[in-house]
Amino acid sequence: MEKQQIRQAVEGVLFTMGGAVSVDKMATALEVDPSDIKTACDELATEYKESGRGISIVRFEDSYQMCTSKETYPYLIRIAKQPKKVALTDVLLETLSIIAYRQPVTKAAIEKIRGVSSDHAVNKLVEYELVEEVGRMDAPGRPMLFGTTEQFLRSFGVNSLSDLPSLSPVQVEEFKEEAEREADLEVEV
Fold first, then answer.
1. Residue 183 pLDDT
2. Out of 36, 87, 149, 164, which could bridge 32 as a Cys pair, Cβ 3.0 to 4.6 Å?
3. Is the separation of the CB atoms in 20 and 150 below 8 Å?
4. Percentage of the chain lying above the pLDDT 90 cut
């Protein structure tokens, strides 16, 4: 397959699929090397950006997706109803951060960290498509394992989980000390 044919096919696939499509899936379908797919996607993304188009191609880990550009959003709002803003409470953010940093993780592990039931929080995050079931643990009862989704990456503006900020050992120690103080206060009450 020639370079222009690969670019044309990739563009058509991304436009038609709407969601993110993995490089391997496109390479298998087009019967080309995955590096040719990455090159085509990156070239198209650069071309769209440099020409100021209303669409863009965005990379999410090892997948690509065609999206509207950020600059067109105000116009989209005028045409379509304003999208529902998801309000993430402190409880949801806390639960989401545990899942993001500990994934794959069970509800029991989340509840052990938080110290309270997390059913509602996990269910809400699944409903908001920020979290999904990623498998089952090989343990009695086969509990569900949860992880973040591509929507999580999009919503928080990161390309991969490795882009998430990391805590310094000093911060981790401070958080542990604060949690221990809070635990002591609860026991005294």
1. 64
2. 36
3. yes
4. 57
**Dist CA 121 CA 95 (whole Å):** 7
Which phi and psi angles does 52 have, rounded to 5°? Answer: 70, 35
Tokens of 118: 């997390």
How many Cβ atoms sit within 10 Å of the Cβ of residue 147?
17
Q: Identify the structural domains of the chain with CATH numbers, from first to last.
A: 3-78 (1.10.10.10), 90-188 (1.10.10.10)
**Of 121, 129, 122, which Cα lies nearest the Cα of 154?**
129
Question: In which residue are the tokens 């529902």 written?
Answer: 84
Question: Cα-flanking dihedrals φ and ψ of residue 106, to 5°?
Answer: -90, 165
Whether residue 63 contacts residue 150, with contact meaning beta carbons closer than 8 Å, is answered with yes
- Please list, in sequence order, all residues whose beta carbon lies within 8 angstroms of the beta carbon of residue 146, skipping any fewer than 6 positions away: 99, 103, 104, 105, 106, 107, 110, 122, 126, 131, 132, 133, 134
Report residue 189's pLDDT band, with 50, 70 and 90 as the boundaries.
very low
- Exposed, middle or buried, 84 (CB in 10 Å: 0-12/13-18/19+)? exposed
What secondary structure, in 3-state letters, does 109-172 show?
HHHHHHCCCCHHHHHHHHHCCCEEEEEECCCCCCCEEEEECHHHHHHHCCCCHHHCCCCCHHHH
- pLDDT tens string 113-143: 888 899 999 999 999 999 999 999 888 889 9
144-152 mean pLDDT? 93
pTM (predicted TM-score): 0.54
